[in-house]
Design a protein that fits this description.
The complex is a heterodimer. Chain A is α/β, with parallel strands linked by helices. Chain A has 15 helices and eight strands. Classes of the chains: A alpha/beta, B alpha/beta.
């Protein structure tokens, strides 16, 4: 496709800009790209998709990390801190993804998600609990009536190494059990070997399996994609295929969410909305353990994507131990002194 | 106070750094021969905080008699200082570097108060670089035989150094560290609007036990600087400042045996190609022109953007500018502080008005300026051509002129089409283009995919009217050494 023919090779940046220019002419009422959208057929073949993704502006690693570090020096105090802590609590996807998970464990987690701090009922609930598909029904019951969502990882999480049928069955199971959100993993092997259409098709198939009842989070496992250029390309690939959220990691590999890779994904959702009118959420997951870290991520959101993303419909933290630290900091702000791990609940 | 209109939901509460840590005395003397003394004619001047116009202290104002006293003290100290083994001089420099690190919070607050720049910059850029510069040259002091200037290179004698107000303590470090490492003694005149950090440095010299007379500090005005440069017993002149004053200095020292280095103005081109990493280029452009309110000789004050991405880049740039936070320089979240002086503010204002009168299109983000103090909103000019004054004159303020180009050749031609030649930036993901373009740019410093990065190991200096000589790195030693002069002759 495309009006540019051979000049694409000489001038890769131009291609995306053409797409971008055309995109402005189209209004986007729905939450997915319509068939008429000029970005829609970039996925018509591996080579077309490759041209598009490789035509996105490159990422300078030093500059990106420098910007993330510099935003990390923002000093968030007093009223701003109180706001940020409550916001962060409301954005937590309280997660347990262990082989040892039991209904008891999931019920405890659900109770905590609904009322994170039993000593202070003004504490906001978390956004969701995140569990494996076989625990969705239990989780659903535990949070019933509270507004807390149930998210379920699916698609042969975390490696994603299974046939598409199996992955889709996994998703359908979770959705049938009542999952409000599906966290899928992409096929990193296919992505790294350049089979972008395979990745794209899997996402669209999972999206279809989610139907209208579940929002789809697409996990890239950024630690395995390794380069920032890849993370930007994966972000666009996921968004083009219909992701409602793009998510950094499974929490199961060495490098999970970092300020730099989250900043990059925030730039991607910002640019995608500019061009298509579609807003996509971001979820850093894994490795965010302290309030201080969480606040740094919120600063990234605030100064990159902007206030439209400062809401748990558009930004989440995939975390487990983070919540207790947020609660302890919240108690500190309320009482003026630090409590300790015995004053928040163990999961 | 802030121009942040991106978010009203997540409003950052004030986070001021405590100013109590910088204990500023009501008055200071000149630092001559290890003592703080009054000016011979008893004159004093006031230094103010540019963000509030509050008077910070009253400072003795050096005159020509004081210059003579200071040069004599430096001459007396020279004999012993230059005869010390390099390793001994290094000990003093290492000690100074460590004291600077230990007192860095105090010095950062002080510099922010006296200069008006944000605490974020003094804390994260100025002070770490100051300490690094002393550490770096301390390392050279006992290795001068291996610096490439012959065996046993000799110091020149007394160095007369005049520094500007934009990076008061950092420029002091650039001047004093190599001078002392090579065995010279120093008389340094800080700028009249920012004398305080140099006077605190004098205290650090005493704390480090530096022998009397090795470093002398003479706060004062241009007349004191002129007297210092013209003094017959000064062997070496080092100046950082405006091109106009630099030319005057060159005339003064012409025909004398004084060795000179001049680091003068600039009109740096920041060249953004269509295959640049756009988000990082935007950060680099912001850092290039709004770091230190654009009061930087190597600022990227001309943005040369490839025509095909102009619209996209400017859109991103404007969005980014509207997130900059302008206000109290002591607030840890402030990005843009105050302009250093009323005089500088007037100059910026007048050049910007000329830019508008010449038909360039002016843009600033929505921005409320504080009522007292000297402030200027970040400003962008589009529709600028090589014929506009704002594309040619150094504004030395937070004002960016945006020009376009079509081909790499045109970018190089436009970048070089200036009487200056201090800095340039190249933004492209194509490595071969970086090398090809950098080789054609007549600028002393060329950054690729970054801007305003400094390191003591890297030489810095200009082409053409941006001056001559290099500061920093091994090259920076040359300005303070006499490689071939016979011993005894200075």
């Amino acid at each position: 496709m495309g009006p540019l023919g051979d000049s694409i090779e000489e001038n890769p940046g131009l291609y995306s800009r053409y797409a971008r220019r055309y995109a402005r002419l189209v209004t986007m009422p729905s939450s997915a790209l319509t068939a008429a959208h000029p970005l829609k057929d970039v996925a018509s073949s591996d080579s077309a998709l490759r041209r598009f993704l490789h035509g996105l502006p490159g990422v300078d690693a030093v500059g990106l990390e420098g910007r993330a570090a510099s935003l990390g020096t923002r000093s968030i105090k007093t009223t701003a801190k109180a706001y940020a802590i409550d916001l962060a609590i409301s954005m937590v996807d309280l997660t347990t993804l262990e082989g040892a998970d039991t209904p008891g464990k999931v019920r405890a987690l659900g109770a905590k998600a609904v009322k994170p701090d039993p000593t202070d009922r003004t504490t906001p609930a978390t956004a969701a609990v995140c569990v494996y598909p076989d625990m969705v029904a239990v989780a659903k019951e535990a949070v019933a009536g509270s507004g807390v969502k149930v998210a379920s990882v699916a698609t042969a999480f975390p490696a994603g190494r299974a046939a598409l049928d199996v992955k889709l069955a996994d998703v359908r199971d979770a959705v049938a059990a009542g999952a409000d959100e599906i966290d899928m993993v992409i096929d990193r092997g296919a992505f790294l070997s350049g089979r972008y259409v395979k990745v794209y098709d899997e996402i669209t198939a999972v999206k279809e399996a989610c139907g209208t009842s579940a929002r789809l989070k697409v996990i890239f496992e950024t630690g395995e994609l390794s380069t920032y250029d890849n993370i930007r390309r994966a972000s666009w690939l996921g968004m083009l295929a219909g992701a409602d959220f793009i998510k950094t990691s499974t929490g199961k590999v060495a490098v999970n969410a970092t300020p730099a890779n989250t900043l990059l994904m925030l730039e991607a959702v910002r640019d995608f909305r500019d061009q298509t009118g579609i807003q996509v959420g971001v979820k850093p997951a894994g490795g965010i353990r302290t309030s201080k870290d969480a606040i740094k991520f919120l600063v990234l959101v605030n100064e990159t994507a902007g206030e439209d993303w400062l809401d748990n419909h558009w930004f989440r933290f995939g975390a487990s131990s983070l919540l207790n630290d947020l609660l302890m900091q919240r108690q500190k702000l309320a009482t003026g002194r630090y409590s300790g791990p015995d004053y928040v609940t163990v999961d | 106070m802030t121009m942040e209109n991106v978010s009203s939901v997540f409003e950052y509460a004030p986070a001021p750094e405590s100013r109590a840590i910088a204990d500023i005395a009501p008055s200071y003397g000149l630092f001559i021969d290890g003592e703080f003394v009054e000016a011979a004619d008893g004159k004093v001047f006031k230094t103010v905080s540019p963000s509030t116009e509050e008077v910070l202290s009253e400072i003795a104002q050096a005159g020509s008699e004081d210059v003579d006293r200071a040069v004599k003290a430096a001459r007396r100290a020279f004999e012993k200082w230059s005869a010390l083994p390099g390793a001994e001089r290094a000990k003093y420099l290492f000690r100074i570097a460590r004291i600077i690190q230990e007192r860095s919070r105090e010095l950062a607050v002080l510099e922010t108060l006296d200069n008006g720049k944000p605490i974020k910059e003094t804390r994260d850029a100025d002070l770490p670089l100051v300490a690094a510069h002393f550490f770096y040259y301390a390392g050279w002091a006992d290795k001068l035989d291996h610096a490439g200037y012959g065996a046993n290179p000799r110091p020149l004698g007394v160095a007369g150094q005049v520094i500007p107000w934009n990076f008061p303590l950092l420029m002091l470090a650039w001047k004093i560290a190599p001078a002392l490492a090579t065995g010279n003694t120093v008389v340094l005149k800080p700028a009249e609007t920012t004398p305080l950090s140099a006077l605190f440095f004098a205290d650090i010299c005493r704390q480090a036990g530096l022998p009397k007379g090795v470093v002398n500090i003479l706060p004062g005005y241009g007349d004191a600087g002129a007297a210092l440069i013209a003094h017959p017993d000064v062997n070496k002149v080092a100046f950082t400042g405006s091109t106009a004053v630099g030319k005057e200095i060159a005339r003064t020292v012409a025909g004398t045996r004084k060795k000179v280095t001049l680091e003068l103005g600039g009109k740096g081109a920041n060249i953004v190609f269509d295959d640049a990493p756009i988000d990082q280029a935007v950060e680099g452009i912001v850092n290039g022109i709004f770091f230190n309110q654009g009061q930087v000789c190597c600022a990227g004050s001309r943005l040369l953007v490839q025509e095909s991405i102009q619209e996209e880049l400017l859109e991103s740039l404007k969005r980014r500018l509207s997130t900059l936070r302008l206000g109290d320089p002591l607030d840890k979240n402030t990005d843009i502080g105050a302009i250093n002086s009323e005089e500088q503010l007037t100059r910026i204002t007048s050049l910007v008005e000329q830019g508008e009168a010449e038909g360039a299109e002016r843009w600033s983000p929505a921005c409320e300026l504080p009522e007292s103090g000297y402030w200027f909103a970040p400003t962008l000019f589009t529709n600028v051509t090589q014929a506009h004054r704002i594309a040619r004159d150094e504004i030395f303020g937070p004002v960016l002129s945006v020009l376009t180009f079509r081909t790499p050749d045109e970018a190089v031609a436009k970048a070089n089409n200036t009487p200056y030649g201090l800095s340039a930036g190249i933004w492209t993901e194509k490595g071969s283009r970086i090398l090809a373009v950098a080789n054609k740019l007549r600028a002393g410093v060329v950054w690729s995919n970054t801007f305003n990065k400094f390191d003591p190991t890297s030489p810095f200096g200009g082409y053409k009217e941006s001056g001559f000589g290099r500061e920093g790195g091994r090259h920076g030693l040359e300005a303070y050494l006499a490689p071939s002069s016979p011993e005894g002759e200075r």
